Amino acid sequence: MSTPRPSLTLSSTVLDAPDAAELADFYRRLLGWETVQDEPGWVKLLPPGGGSGLGFQTEKAYMPPAWPASPGDQLMMLHLDFEVTDLETAVAHAVAEGATPAEFQPQHDVRVLFDPVGHPFCLFVNEEAPGEPPAISPEWVAEQTREIAEQDRLTIQDAVAPDPSAPTAPPRQAEPDTLT
Question: Whole-prediction pTM value?
Fold first, then answer.
């Protein structure tokens, strides 16, 4: 006999930070969301029109994740994806509000950025791609990441303001930045 499943509604995704109010302020400016709860060590934002929000809690032992991670690094437990209509404008806005573009950019239609305390988040344009999507497996992701890193590495400058007429630079290998 199984127990009935209770009603569960996702209220918010919660991000740890050294200072919940400071990180919440960044996301409030980035997204234009409203602060609905503001207590010592805890802030919650909701989007206009409702829906699940973002919560922020102060965690003095917070350590930013490394991205892309290597064995032994503090791993990213989750990241936020934000669909945008204009990638360049969205990146410029995020940077103006305090985000930092990641040195390693795995795709041309996605920009990985870090919030002020190092949480990675992605900005992307949702364009219908023709054909079947590739099978998503850890092996496929690792293979794609290696190929992109070898052939198509973007610099921070390219992520902020890509120049489509600029000649492409030869691939370069660099250690991922560590966040401190």
Answer: 0.67
